[in-house]
Amino acid sequence: MYYINTMKKQDRQKYLAHILKNLPRKPGVYKFKDEKGSIIYIGKAKDLKNRVSSYFQASKDQSVKTQKMISQIADIDFIVVDSDLEAIMLETNMIKKFRPKYNILMKDDKNYVYIKVTINEDFPRILITRRVDKDKARYFGPKTAQHKVQKTLKVLKRIFPYRHCSLAIDYQMPIPHPTDTSRKHQVKVTKVGIKYPCIDYHIKRCIGPCIGTVNKEEYREIIDQVLRFLEGKHDEIIKKLREDMQKAAVDRKFEIAAAIRDKLHAIEDIMETQRVSTPDQKDLDVINYFESDDNIYFNLSQVRGGKLINQENFEIKQCGDLDVLGGFLMQYYEKATDLPKEILIPHSMDDPDTLEKWLTVNKGGKVKIIIPQKGHKNNLLELSYQNAQNFAGLSRVKWQGHQKSEREDALEGLQKILKLEKTPKRLECYDISHFAGSQTVSSMVVFDKGFPKKDDYRKFKLHQEGSPDDFASMEETLERRLKYLKPSIESGLIKVFKSTKKELMKTKLKPNTAQFTIKKGKQKIGTALIFTSVNKKTLIQKIDIPADIDLLTVIKKIAQKTKTKRIYLSIPVKDTLKYEQIGCQPIAKIPDVFKIPASRKILVYDTTKHKTDSSFASKPDLIVIDGGKGQLSSALKQLKKYGFTVPIISIAKKNEEIYLPVQNKPIILSKQSPILHLIQHIRDESHRFALTYHQSLQMKATRDSSLDNIFGIGETTKMKLLKHFGSPQAIKNATMHELAQIIGKSNAKKIKQQL
User: Would you say the pTM of this structure is higher than 0.90?
Assistant: First the structure.
């Protein structure tokens, strides 16, 4: 390797020419290496000599990135195999193992999910998993969006009452004369981690095989319907359900017929989105892609039985691979569990015959790769290209930042332009949402190291009502967030120690009583007297600390030091309200071991019931406000009130200017700047989170509104009014003319008469 590193350019060319001259004319896999010995590209070939030599023949068609790759080749390795089919399998495995920088690379397996149906069990489950095991289960995938899979399964569970629990249920036998008619079969349940039957059974989302309500064959009918649905055979399901519904109606089982009717409606609602269909009713995968300077955006549309049943989008880093399409097909279908009869692609690629053979082996049936030139198949390719292009646009807008380094670079850039002491890791962004001043809410969104940390998101229902006041709303939001931060910061400084003999020289303690010293940093700030009974009950008899020290922090620290979860406090009766406001509670029966005078009262603080909010307890490295100078000033007031020196900025929507507290002129960043993309991403996320919360409150107001009591005013009319006026009170105050413009004179008259 040292020899190759130190070769001159002319010598290296001779060395490579010697390798090319001696390559065999056999199928195999080749590896290009750079001068450090790192593998930069892996490829397959029917004829190694022809394929590898083609890279070194001058061609105007070679892209800049391909030319760059060739200029870095310092060595060539190869592996000869018996057939071109072996070559493609070896190439796929080696790309996964070495992940060369010039090969097209899909994400790691952990980023995709599959729907798993455990048909190898007596009572199959339907789960989401990230890997495919050789366990005789059925798998559907890979799928790129887990939230969409969860949504699909949620709808399916409403239609088909299958189980998804972890119980192992083995069928035994029918019960000859069951006393409980719902339990007709004997089953053996193992791997019990939950109480069963669970809530799903009680709300009719599971048929309850764990308690023997069905046999294997009856339950399998439900699973078979789900499998047909996932295979895209919706017409079969609808036909069967209609037959069952008609039979139930004939047998006068009207409740069963109504339940089946609801299932039919749910399936038809799902199918509403499937507007694409093909006249030949074939199983197809349609693959097209859109390239940008940085990434390649693939769209894969699955057509089963002539209907579009699924679409997946893939974003892949641009790499200069000579065969982008072939590389994607190999890596996708190596993971895929459902192969079609035909795959439509937009143009030719390297060695499609070998790829067809490989796909046919994987499927266990003939697979054709087709490049359509006209007709409905070509139209499907056009539609797939448009979807890939739309996905590219959406990805650029959202700036999902799949590469960790991009986020790190943005954070480092943010540190430089804001002149921060360190790279900001925790960013918090705040936004306000309301409708004409009503139902005012705000959001707190958290990014950690540049990525959303959704567990730390928080929302606030504000007290601002009437005319909109974003400045006051932002001030209230920051006040309610920062009041939790002060005790958290103080908590790190407060220490509690058992008092030393020197400190106790002038203090005479009663039996079972100890004195603790309280310090803030290195400074002693107070003491506490603690009584511990024989049965280990702990009572704080007295706390002596300055008024500006957070009392609750001290109580928690004493509880930690005495290793007790439930700590009692003896307090003056006049201070009861103060202690109750921080979470201390009165008790019905005072333990006999505690003796207190009439002027005092015993409360208890239970640390298990008052856990610290980890998000509110974390100090942000940067606060981002959605808005201009006004919103920034409102937030600054609260930072000054609590004495915090947290860096803070705001971003105004109109021209995306970034405002700082000490600068009159905003910072204007390039629209392509990753720093701006990061700030936009957290701003957009805070807006989405606030808007979602606001809409949920509006929906609740709709359900609970005084309009409910007006005869003849339905849900649609009510929603129109609330959407336009914002609240029931605003509707009540509206004129007849204003109401009539929205819902017509007749309905307006009803509302005016009855509100």
Answer: no
